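User: Can you help me understand a structure? I only have the sequence.
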Amino acid sequence: MLIYYTQELSCETCGRTFIFRNYEKERFAQRGLEKPKHCSLCRKAAQELRKQEIERIESERWQQKKEEEKKIFDIRLNEWKVVAKDDIHPADGHVLYVIGNGFDLMHGVRSSYYAFRDSLGRNSALLHAFENFLTSEDIWADFEEALAHFDIKAMSNGFVVDSWLDILGAYDKDAGESEFYQAGEAAANPILTVVHELPRRFRMWIETLSIGTDDRPLQNMLCQNGKVLCFNYTEFVETLYGVSEDNICYIHGCRRKKKYCPKERLVLGHMPCEDTNKYDFDDISPAGPKNPFKLSMIDAAQDYAIQLIGESDEVLTKNCGDIISAQGTFFAGLNEIEDIITIGHSLSSVDWDYFFEIASRISSIKDVRWYFGCHGLRDLDNLEKLLVKLGIDQSSVSVFRTDDIAVTPLKDKRLTGTLKKLPVEKKLCTSSDGRWSVNTSALSLMIVNQESHAVDYETVFSSSVSDAFFVLSGKYMFAVIRGVDSGVFLFRIIDNHWRFINELESIQNQSLINRRLCCVFLTANEIIFVYNNRVRKYSLSDGSLVSNKALRNAPSYLYSGVDISQLFFKKLLK
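Assistant: Let's start by predicting it. Here is the structure, written out as tokens:
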């Protein structure tokens, strides 16, 4: 039998002990290394420094790019009829304002999609789904449009589906239908996470937004009696300029309406996509022998995953036609409009249907004065394309700049320059005699002598330890990691000091802790895991696998030792 070892190494940077697990060997071998020289904490610190340097370089490139775009923007504006925003005097009561997110931004509101990204936190599953499975080069520049471009191949190719079937034990003889369906759901999980989490997290963020200035740079342009088609989710056009709520159509919902209508939904999504070819790709087939049963299971699970992805994509689609129909009364009242002023709207194609509807409602498109606020080159490009679609000549519209609007920001009430939070030390358990405790801090695990408060043993893992518990009167200790890197680690007291012994061996397609685990027994020399149809025994002396036997209806048999099932279930399966 192949002997399975998880090694205890010493970090060349900080000198601490760290655990190098068997499954990590291949990853380091690909980099030409037999084993790591540094612990996870030091590797993470080095990665953070590299990331900061990359961000600095990218920031410099971004600034240079913006400067170059501004020069082009200045030149391109010479082709347009440019007016100063203070020279725009619309007909009171006969003006329609089309307001986008740029309106909030020019009033100091931190409402860019980049700010939404930052609100998610680095470890967010939602952020992981966006940045790893959306294919747009800069998903936050036009977030809604980016939602139409999930990497379907990366989620549902044969290799990925096969891996999930393997990980979730769907190939086991005693596996049921649930493992199969879980594999399909796991493959589609990135887009499922977006469908389930995006509405909640987006509303949470929207409700935190506040005005960042006391200035009113659009005072001369905005009439209180004008109609407003507002694409923002905030009510700031009311609070800043006194526009009546009765004159405003919050076309995608308003955060304030949740108080009056708890089911009010904030509309966020991409335009309908007619490209069905995105579900056709050259599949990546799993390597290894071509087992017909296995391949048929992969095909079926792949079909299920693609079905889930398609259904999720529908949920993320913004149906402008239905939205316009629901706001028919507002659009019907636009026939007497003489001026249309667009402020802070990027004019992205995802919202063109609304402009088509406006153009179809006004009595004479030739007599209406159009004013478009442009912040940069992208707005100008989108405007050119929109005018072609509307059939409006470029010479008949006016453009005003919004990139020169500057306001005095309110003093930031948030604390600045505060120290980064230090990892919190947490006590996981204490031995029955009260002598020892297991504490964790970030990726570190410490066994502490409660009498002297001295750390008797410390090591660093690649993942955070979830739980720990002492057994056999404090002679042994098990530490547990849950999640993707799940594992159970054995420690033993030798010569009155704690030592790492080994990680209990996992077997392909048979994870140590799974939903088929029925009970766990402990003897003086072994720990026994009993599943529906299998029994696995490990030695307490070195953590090695003693036996792994298939046994039908295994829980119905009698086993020696103390039943510690509830301890494991409480700690591992909660």
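Now, to help you interpret it: The chain has 17 helices and 21 strands. The two ends are 33 Å apart (CA to CA). Let me know which part you'd like to focus on.
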